[in-house]
Amino acid sequence: MNIFKLFAVTGAGMGAQRSRMSVVAGNLANAETTRTPEGGPYRRRNILFRAAPVQEEAPTSLTANSAAPSRTSAWLPLRTSLHGRAEEFQAVAVAGVRESARAPRKVYDPHHPDADTEGYVAYPDINTIEEMVDMLSAARSYEANLTAFNTTKTLIRRLLEIGRA
User: What pTM does this model have?
Assistant: First the structure.
């Protein structure tokens, strides 16, 4: 096994969670946005992940001070099928960002500049509690990946020390 795959797994996990946190932060920042360049209120965004083929190359620059290689995919563990043959590695990658199909919530405010003819303003249907839970989940996942990255780094250093002794 290429040792850099261990770093790529955790680095990609951190990158994916960082992307997730950015999307959630955008949702929170625009929770009261009633007008967008596209027209209408802001629409909640969700990040999408997908399976992707494994990239075999090692990162080109990985130093003791770097946080992680910058990638958006991670290797999943090698599984063995029922017949004892190893299955192909799959990677997880950020596939994109999708706008929610939720209808905007209507609030009666006839003095608002974006009020319709009946006096209702369309606000994004963003639940701040749901967004905060999603943000906390992403932060915990990021921390778990960072801990795994640092643990791997420590284990490799110890192995190198044993090799020198």
Answer: 0.74
